[in-house]
């Protein structure tokens, strides 16, 4: 259970204009950690993992996993780099990381609930958390 000051930190992190903690930068890391903990509590685990060794009717598959070639480490790490053609790794940014990097600001008159309603497709878990935290403070 969160104490009132922690709820205030979360509410600050969930406001796009305030999450930078410009006036109290020493508190930003603490607030980010609180948000990460709350976010992780709401993040659904993949509970629909299928057993790849069985068919839909429950019969065991003879060879469910195809054999793959094991590539020597030399071939993985010693690939030549073509100038101007660097391969960027796939983005592994989570919803939370995207929000924390987002520098969008809203008008002072904008209702924060409207902001989260408009952004709930981009940040579904954070929008759910924002509704809980911000409604608590009303």
TrEMBL record:
<dbReference type="GO" id="GO:0046983">
    <property type="term" value="F:protein dimerization activity"/>
</dbReference>
<protein>
    <recommendedName>
        <fullName>HAT C-terminal dimerisation domain-containing protein</fullName>
    </recommendedName>
</protein>
<dbReference type="Pfam" id="PF05699">
    <property type="entry name" value="Dimer_Tnp_hAT"/>
</dbReference>
<dbReference type="InterPro" id="IPR008906">
    <property type="entry name" value="HATC_C_dom"/>
</dbReference>
<feature type="domain" description="HAT C-terminal dimerisation">
    <location>
        <begin position="95"/>
        <end position="135"/>
    </location>
</feature>
<dbReference type="InterPro" id="IPR012337">
    <property type="entry name" value="RNaseH-like_sf"/>
</dbReference>
């Amino acid at each position: 259970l969160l104490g009132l000051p922690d709820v205030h930190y979360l509410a600050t992190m969930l406001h796009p204009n305030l999450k930078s903690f410009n006036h109290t930068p020493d508190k930003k890391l603490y607030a980010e950690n609180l948000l990460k903990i709350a976010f992780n509590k709401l993040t659904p685990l993949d509970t629909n993992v299928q057993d790849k060794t069985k068919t839909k009717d429950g019969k065991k598959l003879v060879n469910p996993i195809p054999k793959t070639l094991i590539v020597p480490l030399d071939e993985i790490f010693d690939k030549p780099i073509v100038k101007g053609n660097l391969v960027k790794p796939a983005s592994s940014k989570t919803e939370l990381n995207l929000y924390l990097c987002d520098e969008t600001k809203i008008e002072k008159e904008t209702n924060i609930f409207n902001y989260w309603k408009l952004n709930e497709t981009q940040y579904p878990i954070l929008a759910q958390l924002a509704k809980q935290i911000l409604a608590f403070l009303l």
